[in-house]
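Dear support,

I submitted the protein below through the web form. The confirmation email said the job was done, but the results page showed an empty box. After a refresh the structure appeared. I'm attaching both so you can tell me whether what I see now is the final result or a partial one.
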Amino acid sequence: MNLQVRPDFAHLGQLAACRLCGAGLKHSFVDLGMSPLCESFLKADELDAMEPYFPLHALICDRCFLVQLKQVVNPQHIFQDYAYFSSYSTSWVAHAKSYCEMIAKRLGLGTASLVVELASNDGYLLQHFLPLGVPVLGIEPAMNVAQIAIEKGIATITEFFGVALAKRLAADGKRADLIAGNNVLAQVPDLNDFVAGMVILLKPEGVITLEFPHLEKLIAEIQFDTIYHEHFSYFSFITIEAMAERHRLKLIDVEELTTHGGSLRLFVCQQNSHHVELASVKTLRDEERQAGLHVIAGYAGFEAKCQGVRQAFLAFLNQAKAQGKTVAAYGAAAKGNTFLNYCGVTARDIVCVADLSAAKQGKLLPGSGVPVVAPAELMSRKPDYVVVLPWNLVDEISGQLTGIRAWGGQFVTAIPALKVF
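What the results page shows now:
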């Protein structure tokens, strides 16, 4: 692989002010160096090509406390042809099904309702409303994954969502009883346009649910690998509350979830609706203040902790190599690519990474150049160690790969601390 890569600024924009409140940005949260786009997998004949790298540096706003990337990549460049298909994670599909059943009952959704999902991917979530008789509409800019949803019978618009699209839908008589946004808010470069669009699309008594990895958990458990170019922003409850107030929305409930290493599910509605705020809102607000997320000092020292995780993992790889042990990985996930590139890992360190996605198999991980193989090939290679890169799915993955114990293989996770088991 040609390691003399250069930063490609053709698709890069410099963030001069906070993308939510407009305040100047002067506080660094963590600088992860230069990294390629985490979902831009390489073909074998691209191995010696000069790969575009981009700065991966997150800053923190001292007014609304939004953590955000300093330089941003054009979303058209990232999401036009996307390599992530939600349905490949069985636990995530089960999570989506449970949500649909819960929210349909809670809101009394039926045949006269409309559910709109923003960033609906391959229909992993909306498909569960169909047996309930609830009309749905997906909005998904990545045409390759949207096509999978369309083939499932899920009406899908292949555009980026914002005020312009929301106005067109509202003018056509399409307003939502429920807007679902699971792990999409982080991927929105223009937050205010996106949220203003939701306000237009939402019925007066409608509800928005937003799910996203919780910044408090990211800091506490050193989850720096969830920072990558596809995620422009990282949210605390405090920041979301500021965003809601800015757009005349109110938070009425919150659930703390285990997904993605610790996420929030927020329930949001129009400020003048009849929905009332539940006690969970104050509880989480107080929890975040106790964690110091309302002051800049609460974000200090995170980069040093990331460096400690990197040092421990590199020490593990060096020891394995000295002992003649083979190290492979499982899960060609975005977070894994951030992690491997931050650590400077290559195919000399990790022989392959297995993944269920046929779209990724036969390709190489961006940056590190580790080949992606089918799980069956990983099992035939019989590695001594399997590093589970999507550590949030470690129970699911280790359960699928129990056969590695037959030859004495062991699983490894690196975050929040190195663990061999």
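Response: this is the final, complete result; the empty box was a page-load delay. The longest strand covers residues 202-213.
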